[in-house]
Amino acid sequence: SSTLSALTTETSLPSLADVLMSEKDTVRIEDCIQWTSIENLQLLKSTLRLSKFDAFVQQEMTQYPSPWIILREKFERSKLDFDIVLIDCPPALSLLTCNALAASDSYLIPVESGSNYAIQGLDDLVSIVANIRHKLSLDLRCIGILLTKHMKAQTACRVMEQELRKKHADAVLTTTIRLTTKFKQAEGMKTPVITF
After folding, report:
1. Mean pLDDT, the chain, integer
2. What is the DSSP secondary structure assignment for residue 134, as one 8-state letter?
3. Strand 34-35 vs strand 42-43: parallel, antiparallel, or unpaired?
4. pTM for the full predicted model
5. What does the angle CA 159 – CA 162 – CA 165 come to, to the nearest 5 degrees?
6. Is residue 3 very low, low, confident or very high in pLDDT (cuts 50, 70, 90)?
7. What does the pLDDT look like over 124-147, one tens digit per residue?
8. Is the backbone of residue 32 left (phi > 0), alpha (psi -120 to 50) or beta?
9. What pLDDT shows up at residue 19?
10. Residue 88 CA neighbour count, 13 Å, CB half
């Protein structure tokens, strides 16, 4: 929310949770788009309420016979025309993540450098994506694996990068996001890191 407040002053608009959990499209994606202080960047905010999405869909199964494609259908019914839409997903492999993948034509996998949990989660994600691609007949392309919080000086990070490149070859991007205090400083100043 601190990042959002740095980008826009509008806080009263509905959120993605309202879009996904509203009855019969009473809240549309168009109703939630927020303009920002950065040219050509608009946001559709999320809230903690979105964490209840999986339970909500299970309770309302008769309303959602195809729970994997709720988000995709919402985008298809919208009148928005964007060149690129980025969907930031939680690390949990939930129905929400599956919806994001089903609404996409490509995906990027951020992996926290030096974390064994991240590698284990990567294998699970690859399996889930393959399942979704098959089940929904999607042409879903992997842009690549992006190492985040990467510190080349740390042995654990270097070893993990080597293992990933050995196992996933060209899928691991040459670009990495290094660990820096600038992210925390920008957050503390409520300023987007790209303008900090």
Report:
1. 85
2. H
3. antiparallel
4. 0.82
5. 150
6. low
7. 888 888 888 888 888 899 999 999
8. alpha
9. 92
10. 5
Q: Hey, how many other C-beta atoms are within 10 angstroms of the C-beta on 48?
A: 9
Residue in this structure with the two tokens 């964490």, named with its chain if needed: 51
The fraction of the chain above a pLDDT of 70, given in percent, is 94
Amino acid at 1: S
Q: Both tokens of residue 92?
A: 């949990």
The CA distance from 154 to 86, in Å, is 31
Amino acid in the structure at residue 126: V
Q: Three-state SS for 196?
A: coil
Residue by residue, DSSP assigns 94-121 as SHHHHHHHHT-SEEEEEEETT-HHHHHH
Question: How far is the C-alpha of 86 from the C-alpha of 108, rounded, in Å?
Answer: 10
CA dihedral 63, 67, 71, 72 (to 10 degrees): -110
Contact call for residues 133 and 126 (beta carbons, < 8 A): no
C-beta of residue 179 within 8 angstroms of C-beta of residue 151: yes
Tens-digit pLDDT profile for residues 25-44: 789 999 899 888 888 889 99
- The length of the chain is 196
CB 64 within 8 A of CB 70: yes
What angle in degrees, to the nearest 10, is found between the helix axes of 95-102 and 116-136? 60
For the record, the structure tokens of 104 come out as 């996409």
